[in-house]
Every structure is written in structure tokens, then in C-alpha cells.
Design a protein that fits this description.
Layout lengths: L9 H15 L12 H9 L7 E2 L3 E3 L12 E3 H5 L8 E5 L3 H11 L8 H7 L23 E5 L15 H10 L3 E3 L2 E7 L2 E6 L2 E5 L3 E4 L3 E3 L2 H8 L5 E2 L11 H14 L1
Parallel strand pairs: 1-12, 3-10, 4-5, 4-10, 5-6
Antiparallel strand pairs: 2-11, 7-8, 8-9
Helix pairs in contact: 2-7, 4-6
């Protein structure tokens, strides 16, 4: 999902590295195969497997809002992984890393991080240095969509984004006209859109699509199923701790576990 977000193309190479490494090391990979707790437990008891490592990741967290079953409501998983269509008037609930990534996915351009000229034009860099400081008017970074981001905390949106790149992402979204509202309380989603309030004032945002980016929960279904059958698996990555999950932490944890065997 991350590699679909403009500016995160490096994940393409990371995945290519692991794909080649798995082939080189002749690791057996079973695609389109759902692991079953009963089957895995039987294989452990028979001695086929010495250890089981659970790396099942996370699932989107659903906030307590009336109307989450409304057709307008989708999760970030629906948008980034499943290609669910998104309307022109969008409300994004949640302004953590995932919320900002979804907003960038909806308004950004993959070419900006792949083609130097597009990047220079977007940020107003005059490579010929014909103007003072090598600056020129930046190209319009806009979208036909009207996007509004919300968060519950009454603080600046994106406060906890990476210090070296977070300001860039916030600048791009503001330039694209993305509205940001802090301190929001959510009431419901219905045909009118998203019902919410700020400082006790009730408001309604006309939205075609409401995207839930309100955090994630560890997907521990398989872990729990194995534990119930007397198997004690290792658990890593998002399945271990969902909060503030990033690829670096997950890969570091996996590597340390692997070399400990």
C-alpha cells in the first residue's frame, strides 16, 4: 500500500530486494494460501515446523461513529489496497501518518518523485537560475477533489510526522487546497455527509466519500488460535504492536528474531 503513495517509490526497490532474496535462498513461498491455526498446530506437533512466526500485520480500527455501514464510508485499506472508487468530495477521519498518506495519494502525482523536471516545476526551482535565488512561481499543485482532513486532538494536524519530511507533505496538501480541522468530534455519517462538531458547534460536511484513517489494531487472530491449541508462536511487526507502525521497526524486529534462532 505504501508504494502507491507518491514519493514512496523506494518501497518498489525494497520489495524487489526481498523477492530476489527469497528466490536466491530458495525459501518456499505459498501465495493465495490462508494459514489455518489447526493445520499449523498439527504440523508443529508432528515436528514438521520447529517455530511459527506471526507477522500478520494490522487491520483498520473503526471509530465509534453512527452510520459506518453507510455506502459513503470506506477504510484506507479499501482505497490503497483494493482500489475502491473515491468521490470528488472527501472527508478523511484521522490525521496520523496514514491519513496524510491517503490525502497525498488522492492529490499527489507519482511523476513528481520520478521525473526531476516535474519536481522542479512543482516546487518552483529555476534550474537555469534566471531568477533571484533560482526561484520561480511553482506549478499549480491542485486536484478536482475537495478534501477535508479531521482529527480529534485539538492540536496542529501532522504534528507527529517525520521532522525531515512532514513539513513538505503538509505544505503540498495546503497548496492543493486540503482543509484541516483539529479538535473534531464525530457524530454520524448519513446521506447528508459527515456530522461532526468543533468546540460544541454542530456542523455537517457534504461528502461523497468518508475515509477512515483512525489508526489500526494488531491482527492477532492466528496468534490467538495457535495459543488456544498450545502452540506459542513468535509475533512481530504490526501483529505485535500496531501503534506508530513503520517498515523500519517491523524489519528490524524480524531481523533480530531471525538471527536469534
Amino acid at each position: 500500500m505504501a508504494r502507491k503513495v507518491p514519493g514512496k517509490n523506494e518501497f518498489n526497490e525494497m520489495l524487489r530486494y526481498f523477492r530476489v532474496s527469497l528466490e536466491r535462498l530458495k525459501v518456499a513461498v505459498h501465495l493465495k494460501t490462508r494459514a489455518d491455526a489447526e493445520d499449523l498446530a498439527a504440523r508443529v506437533r508432528s515436528g514438521e515446523f520447529d517455530e511459527v512466526v506471526i507477522a500478520t500485520g494490522v487491520i483498520p480500527r473503526e471509530p465509534e461513529i453512527k452510520g459506518l455501514d453507510h455506502p459513503k464510508v470506506v477504510s484506507y485499506l479499501d482505497v490503497l489496497a483494493n482500489g475502491v472508487p473515491v468521490g470528488n468530495k472527501v472527508a478523511i477521519i484521522g490525521a496520523g501518518g496514514i491519513g496524510f498518506d491517503v490525502a497525498e495519494y488522492l492529490v499527489g502525482s507519482a511523476e513528481e518523485s520520478l521525473k526531476p523536471k516535474v519536481f522542479m516545476d512543482a516546487w518552483g526551482v529555476d534550474t537555469a537560475i534566471r531568477s533571484a535565488g533560482g526561484l520561480k512561481a511553482p506549478a499549480q499543485h491542485g486536484t478536482e477533489r475537495v478534501i477535508h482532513m479531521f482529527q480529534r486532538k485539538p492540536e496542529s494536524l501532522g504534528k507527529n510526522l517525520g521532522k525531515s519530511t512532514g513539513w513538505i507533505l503538509k505544505a503540498k496538501l495546503r497548496k492543493a487546497g486540503v482543509a484541516m480541522t483539529a479538535g473534531a468530534s464525530y457524530q454520524a455519517v448519513d446521506d447528508q455527509g459527515l456530522h461532526y462538531s468543533v468546540n460544541g458547534e454542530a456542523r455537517v460536511l457534504d461528502a461523497d466519500t468518508v475515509i477512515l484513517c483512525a489508526g489500526q489494531l494488531s491482527n492477532r487472530t492466528l496468534f490467538d488460535g495457535l495459543a488456544e491449541r498450545g502452540v506459542k508462536p513468535y509475533v512481530i511487526g504490526g501483529a505485535d504492536v500496531a501503534a506508530e507502525l513503520d517498515a523500519l521497526r517491523a524489519i528490524d524486529q524480524a531481523t533480530r528474531l531471525a538471527v536469534s534462532f
